[in-house]
Amino acid sequence: MKEFDLIDQIVSILGEQAFGEWVRVGPGDDCSVIAVSPDCEVVSSIDSLYSGVHFPESAPPELVGYRSMMVSLSDIAAMGAQATYVLINLCLPSESFTWALECAKGIKRAAEDSGVFVCGGNIARGPLGITVSAHGEVPEGKSILRSGASVGDSIFVSGCLGGAASYIRQISSLTYESPHYESLRKAFYEPSSCLGLLSEVRGKATSCIDISDGLIQDLGHILDSSNVGGRLSSSLIPVNKGANLNDALFGGDDYQLLCTSSTQMEGFYRIGETTQEGGILVDERELSRRGYDHFLA
Amino acid sequence: MKEFDLIDQIVSILGEQAFGEWVRVGPGDDCSVIAVSPDCEVVSSIDSLYSGVHFPESAPPELVGYRSMMVSLSDIAAMGAQATYVLINLCLPSESFTWALECAKGIKRAAEDSGVFVCGGNIARGPLGITVSAHGEVPEGKSILRSGASVGDSIFVSGCLGGAASYIRQISSLTYESPHYESLRKAFYEPSSCLGLLSEVRGKATSCIDISDGLIQDLGHILDSSNVGGRLSSSLIPVNKGANLNDALFGGDDYQLLCTSSTQMEGFYRIGETTQEGGILVDERELSRRGYDHFLA
């Protein structure tokens, strides 16, 4: 198959998710062209997943496609923004065309689940990997930053933690019959983009981040940016079935939202509060901020 | 060095090119936030370069950074759009921190030369490569598409062709003393983004594309999209010093603009005209559309 035939087939798989509403020009020109709502700003983020590093070489390509979308889209959600479109760079060894077509199906499913359009991209020859640049819009000046937490805010997470880390930790021994297999597999491959929580985040969060590097490390980013400390209760932290507290505190890849707010947030778990003193206490014990570092893992 | 230290150092190298004017939130949050001018649409494109595929493993990282920017920004120019910002995904083997810092210097130089801001990105562990998503803005409905050529339009290119292909073709034998070494090296590593030609493209081009896969193949995209044919005169095609006509016709990687227009375009070379009959004639001989295919090269 030639490159342009492969692109045609991928665009055909994407179907309605490649064109529509705010997409003025979709795949097939030098750039995509996108309309932005009046009085809105654009929010943008980029993330990549490589075979053998961010997903197992044997990973089902449909799920890699799905996961790659959610990893980038959760950044849009963490800004309190509406996701609008993504661009995708697919890097393929020459024999990977079937892989690419399966991956495109997962991308399409994630686009449908998130209400975004996949309106452009690129295919390159090289090591198997996928890079997604995700884009959204937010009313001017209304993006939720990491720096907005105040002393006394409650700290919330949007869902169970540790499942993705537990899946990767046990991957060589997990089988379909393992307890909680499906829950762990889903935590890794099919995280939520959290875009469904947008109205709650917009109305109430004083700061927000998506948990990619582990709860403690990502909470550290909010606390540092906001010049506050934090106190967590381990008994309040929602731990994924089949995961342990260590996975939930230090494991990455969950892509749940971590927020602060001065009021109750519906659909979120309250796990602690911000404090005047710096640092992070868990059950009154000070923790180091060990989390996922891409170059130490 | 840890990942976050590396990011800090890169942001420090980028300096003023990471923040400014239309950048509301730069590096350091989940997303960048960018203001869009009223009555404008956003144009977006993504491209990647991998070591050993798109640049030699021994390539100077400063030049790889520079080239990666121009490769993506020429797509913005080809839409008749003003480039505004880029996001960068850097994929690094664990020992490549010095490489990354040198690469950042080239990215900064390209950003200065093009008037864009590098306001976000990501660093991943994996095979050495760089992906740039480039973004710009254009007045509503004014983007220049591949489909706008009419029969009888002149065909123009913005500069010399074949230099990048000649450089790669001869790379194992080229030395500093080779004739035209500097011109060929520059054609490959420091192509122009062509953003300086924006006013001419906006006012006059009926269609436009950047030449990434070779003149004949990329002209084919314009002709197919516009339902016209083309006739070129080889004697009118500007061939880079040290390259031959074959490089100019079929070699990729030059990133010059290829336009059609019903009027003269200043600063461009007129190389032929569009015709009623389909296909491409060079000196009245019909050519096949052989160009660069990422999976046949």
Can I get a quick summary?
Chain A is of the alpha+beta class. Chain A has 8 helices and 13 strands. Chain A has a 7-stranded mixed sheet. A 4-stranded mixed sheet of chain A has the order 3-6-4-5. Chain A has a two-stranded antiparallel ribbon with strand order 1-2.
Describe the fold and architecture.
2 copies of one chain form a homodimer. Chain A is an alpha+beta fold and 297 residues long. Chain A has 2 domains: 3-139, 2-Layer Sandwich (60s Ribosomal Protein L30, Chain: A); 146-286, PurM-like C-terminal domain (Phosphoribosyl-aminoimidazole Synthetase, Chain A, domain 2). In chain A, 30% of the residues lie in helices and 27% in strands. Chain A contains 8 helices and 13 strands. The first copy, chain A, has helices at residues 3-14, 61-78, 97-114, 163-169, 181-189, 198-204, 215-226, 245-250; strands spanning 23-25, 32-34, 40-50, 82-92, 117-125, 129-139, 154-157, 205-210, 229-232, 257-261, 269-275, 280-282, 285-286. A 7-stranded mixed beta sheet of chain A has the order 8-10-7-11-9-12-13. A 4-stranded mixed beta sheet of chain A has the order 3-6-4-5. In chain A, α1 runs parallel beside α3 (97-114) and α4 crosses α5 (181-189). The mean pLDDT of chain A is 94. At the A-B interface, α1, β2, β3, α2 and β4 of A face α1, β2, β3, α2 and β4 of B.
Topology:
The structure is a homodimer of 297-residue chains.
Chain A lengths: L2 H12 L8 E3 L6 E3 L5 E11 L10 H18 L3 E11 L4 H18 L2 E9 L3 E11 L14 E4 L5 H7 L11 H9 L8 H7 E6 L4 H12 L2 E4 L12 H6 L6 E5 L7 E7 L4 E3 L2 E2 L11
Parallel strand pairs in A: 4-5, 9-12
Antiparallel strand pairs in A: 1-2, 3-6, 4-6, 7-10, 7-11, 8-10, 9-11, 12-13
Helix pairs in contact in A: 1-3, 2-3, 4-5
